[in-house]
Amino acid sequence: xxxxxxxxxxxxxxxxxxxxxxxxxxxxxxxxxxxxxxxxxxxxxxxxxxxxxxxxxxxxxxxxxxxxxxxxxxxxxxxxxxxxxxxxxxxxxxxxxxxxxxxxxxxxxxxxxxxxxxxxxxxxxxxxxxxxxxxxxxxxxxxxxxxxxxxxxxxxxxxxxxxxxxxxxxxxxxxxxxxxxxxxxxxxxxxxxxxxxxxxxxxxxxxxxxxxxxxxxxxxxxxxxxxxxxxxxxxxxxxxxxxxxxxxxxxxxxxxxxxxxxxxxxxxxxxxxxxxxxxxxxxxxxxxxxxxxxxxxxxxxxxxxxxxxxxxxxxxxxxxxxxxxxxxxxxxxxxxxxxxxxxx
Amino acid sequence: xxxxxxxxxxxxxxxxxxxxxxxxxxxxxxxxxxxxxxxxxxxxxxxxxxxxxxxxxxxxxxxxxxxxxxxxxxxxxxxxxxxxxxxxxxxxxxxxxxxxxxxxxxxxxxxxxxxxxxxxxxxxxxxxxxxxxxxxxxxxxxxxxxxxxxxxxxxxxxxxxxxxxxxxxxxxxxxxxxxxxxxxxxxxxxxxxxxxxxxxxxxxxxxxxxxxxxxxxxxxxxxxxxxxxxxxxxxxxxxxxxxxxxxxxxxxxxxxxxxxxxxx
Lengths: 344, 264
Ligand SMILES: Nc1ncnc2c1ncn2[C@@H]1O[C@H](COP(=O)(O)OP(=O)(O)OP(=O)(O)O)[C@@H](O)[C@H]1O
Ligand SMILES: [Mg+2]
Hints:
The structure holds two protein chains of two kinds.
Chain A: H1 4-19, H2 23-49, H3 56-72, E1 74-78, E2 82-86, H4 91-113, H5 119-138, H6 140-143, E3 156-159, E4 163-166, H7 170-192, H8 195-205, H9 207-212, H10 217-243, H11 253-266, H12 273-288, H13 294-311, H14 316-327
Antiparallel strand pairs in A: 1-2, 3-4
Helix pairs in contact in A: 2-7, 2-10, 2-11, 2-12, 3-4, 3-5, 3-10, 4-5, 4-10, 7-10, 8-10, 11-12
Chain B: E1 10-21, E2 24-35, E3 39-43, H1 50-57, E4 65-70, E5 73-74, H2 80-85, E6 88-90, H3 103-110, H4 119-123, H5 127-147, H6 162-175, E7 180-184, H7 192-207, E8 211-215, H8 219-225, E9 228-233, E10 236-241, H9 243-248, H10 250-256, H11 259-263
Helix pairs in contact in B: 3-6, 5-6
The complex binds adenosine-5'-triphosphate (ATP) and magnesium ion (MG).
């Protein structure tokens, strides 16, 4: 049951475009998928190292802008009459550069703030998001500011000369998001189930004990920040080349809040948590839209979240796992994978 | 005051160490050494500075003055994890495990120093990562078995009964491959039979050639297991020597008078 469930899920997700022809709903699934990837990346930090990044959208936005700019090209003047001219790169190259730059930002933020951590990390990440938003807004020559970056090229995959496919439209982008999501999930899964992931969890749970065992706090927290930021950057790249227009509103605080809600309600520190939370809070707004005004939607969101946090403080996934275990009459978790809650 | 000067076999040397907390002098001018393979106990009444001394040696506290050396390397400026990587592994006075992890995972975390796979190797799931993981898991079972808590492997660390939790702490510390093991009151709160089996375990640990620095109030254990004892009072060494001598030492007896009544 446990082993086949993930494959059933993947099969189901692969089949969606075959029977779902509603373009609007497919669009919702794509954006939900992109947001779920950011939630997965946030979970690596929040759930496994215990560090709350309240500027997580910054890594997403940096990935989006970098990827867009790298594939659009730019020509900017910097001090002293110098000019930087960049010829457009293929979108896929831009995507990779976006991941890299977002990862570097994660590295810098991590190095800067993990000496003191926790509250300090929260503040540094919030400030970082605000700073990049202001840069995106005001460096008009590079980013077009509030006018937005338009006509971002879609992805083209394949081997030049042999076979190429440009991802126009919803279905190919759906599969692109699914592929990146799957890679991100496998990556995070391998990481958290490894010695490296154990070190992160150890630091979260009992830092003095962890350090007394030779675990270097800064090293593993920075590592988590880099991977987390890189994955968020990948989600940003997907977003930029799918929506094909991005503006500084991409850095709005509310997006970070949405990610946190996804992780916390789904179950932080579990591998399936952000997937469950991401799907619920990606689809919920769509269901509410015909019924409620945006303000009312936010209230319903809030109430729903408070209910979950109140009744299932550890989130949906751990609650379901507990229920499942008690139903099966298992009192002791299996040794393998018990910590991260199963295989999914 | 009796004092053995640190012989040539000294592995750990604490040289004129003082620790001040604001106006409070927790340790003043402390000098002693540990020899290879020795079990040295640090005793003294509550607040004497024993835990502080352990914190200084393991990098959790910087001494105000003085120097700590392990096998020639100065420890003063090192962080706790760097000290641990030199083979000095400590336990904590207040029970300290990874409560939300299984006993088995606790020991796996402890084995951190045995692994070396990088981030890339791990995310690419290279065969050598899998081999390393397998080796770590085998080693974890050996340690659980050695300490005698293998039957609790699947339980959460925080859900263990107190006595077993204290054993788990030692298992986790042993997993970190110590050459010098520092124990802070490992049997406090244990009943007589738990203490007796802990003493047996400590005997087995010593047979592996580990050097041990023991902080303990249980005088029966200290007197029967130590090679040498350093007695502290108000942050000062008041006596140092073999158990028989310490038991007779008038200063030690005076320091413990009144104290003994409280903790009997
Ligand atoms: N971080 C600290 N800040 C201020 N004072 C401290 C600190 N740690 C210890 N002290 C003080 O230093 C003195 C020595 O404390 P320490 O914990 O080393 O004693 P101990 O010998 O381990 O006692 P016990 O047997 O009760 O564990 C005490 O007076 C204590 O209150
Ligand atoms: Mg103490």
